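pasting for the record
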Amino acid sequence: MSIEQLIYNFLTIIISLAAFYLFKSYWPKYFEAKGTNQATKEDIGEITEIVENIKSDLLKQNELLKAQLSFQNQHRLNLKTAEREALFDYNKRISAWIYSLIRFTFTPYNLDNYKDIKLMSAELSKRQYECDLAEAHLFLFMSEKEFIELRRDLTLSVLELEGILEKSMHKIYWTYSKCEFDLEIEKNDPKKQSEIRGGLYKELTALTDVYRTDSIKQFEKVNRLHSKMQQLINKRLKQLESDE
């Protein structure tokens, strides 16, 4: 074997040993590092997925909370609107009842239409009924002692005013009815009929004077209590406005 051949074989062995050493030393580390990088990428992927899921859950919870708050706010606004309407309606009904009493007059009635007085009595009962309904509705919102006591005093005073009118209506109705009966009996006696009509005028004047005096006196009490109620209602309306 020549020297060149020996040198070639020696270099081949040296190179082979060097390659084997490098392969043995660095190749496992390469795969280990590659595996580590792959695991890191997978971990990052898992973490990213978890973070996205958390973000999605938070967004859902946030939207749900916003919806709940919006519903609660709308419910509160609806209640305030209902209470405001109840306050307006009660004030309207109690005022209509009061003024229908104080503005009533017997002037339009005479022997030809006095029976219509009973229609007015039915109208007053309707006003009272409507006021009672409005009052019951308002109780759903206002249960304060001040309101309850004032409402009671006002209602009683209005009922007393109505009682004065009802009493006068019955008396005047009976007076007309009696006069009508007497005129029918004396239909053939003009002089007697004239006396009956004159007596009717005197009786009606006395009855209406008493009614006017008593109703004005009672209306002063009603008006005072009604003014207090309107002040209380106005105060409550301003509270509702400031709460919005």
